[in-house]
Amino acid sequence: MSAAEKPPLLQLTWCEIQEKGGRSEERWLVIDRLVYDITHFRWRHPGGSRLIGHYAGQDATDAFKAFHIDSQLVRRYLRPLLIGELGPQEPSQEPSKDRSLVEDFRRLREVVEGLGLLGPRPLFFAGMLLHILALDVAAWLILWLWGPSWVPFIVTAILLGTVQAQAGWLQHDFGHLSVFGTSRWNHLAHRFVIGHLKGAPASWWNHLHFQHHAKPNCYRKDPDVNLHPLLFTLGATLSFELGTQKKKYMPYQHQHKYFFLLGPPALIPVYFQWYIFYFVTKRRQWQDLAWMMSFYIRFTLCYLPLLGLPSFIALFFLVRVLESHWFVWVTQMNHIPMHIDRDQNKDWVTMQLEATCNVEQSLFNDWFTGHLNFQIEHHLFPTMPRHNYYAVAPLVRSFCKKHGLSYQNKSLYTAFADIIRSLKSSGEIWMDAYLHK
Predict the structure, then answer these.
(1) Among 122, 260, 305, 336, which one has the highest count of C-beta atoms within 10 angstroms of its own C-beta?
(2) What is the separation, in whole angstroms, between the first and last Cα of the chain?
(3) What is the pLDDT of residue 76?
(4) Which stretches make up the Cytochrome b5 heme-binding domain (predicted)?
């Protein structure tokens, strides 16, 4: 059938599309007023079925533009899924969303693209990689030159912990496709950094992290808040709900205290350390497993001959504990103190701003956090190279001021302290509802 003979697209309403949401057998979503049936495609979606499924029954336009660096290429895969379009009487945004805010943000994105702020500086990322490799070599040389006494041992552990943290921020850059102009090269570099330098699978990171960006702090959609209610109760709304249901899996009124035991020191060495192997074997991600094993083989060959088995094991887990502290405090300071609830299908900008906050800019904060102190800018433009966050930040602040949106910017100490304060507050909300509602 020629293009001229193709039947006209179905004219659909937002009500009809919303009926094809997460609990429907059929799954539809909207991108630029066009309606796509993702019922079967979601199982083949490179980002995973859950990621694209989180937008079933919703407008996914801004999320689509945020995640794909070559939208024209991706649209070719969408063509067979096209089943209709919004009727002429239907607004481009869902009726519950602020039209002026949504359209203003899309114009802001065009400005950002026009200024070249989505383009990377390769030398910046080369420098990041070189400084990680230099620290890695220095850690080994210290033990080789001065032997396995306490001081060289501790210095080596600190340097290796720094390597792991900084490699974590660098793999995050590659994972977000923000270094190279093509997905293929970003994915290859991502596997090298997260697999060979850190010993973790790229597929596992992609599976979890893109869901987090798609629906940050949305319970049942953001894996980062899945610790509710098993270990912690998070957010005022969910904590009140849990309390009124008389559910108690932990002594939540003390969670701001036991966070210091179950959070920073335990997440990576206790939970992630075994789960990543379970993940790759269950999903048969053999390429990721090979990259991971290259890390463990290299680490063993470098340090087992210098330390002997007991000290070698001690070094490995000490490094993981240091890395875990660094990772947890930095990644949670931007999200746990913010609004946490079920998905309310808010517009892209409002959803991201309610779930994220910034930490003050400084050379140390930029390095220490891998520029995740600019969490708001990162969430609004996830493929933007991190060295451009500072340049787009004034535009985002101006946008927020115009639309009356809260743009939170804290000191590093305040951001860390707010993790504990928010856990204490949500624990108290749960306790009050549990006892009195």
Answers:
(1) 336
(2) 64
(3) 84
(4) 9-87
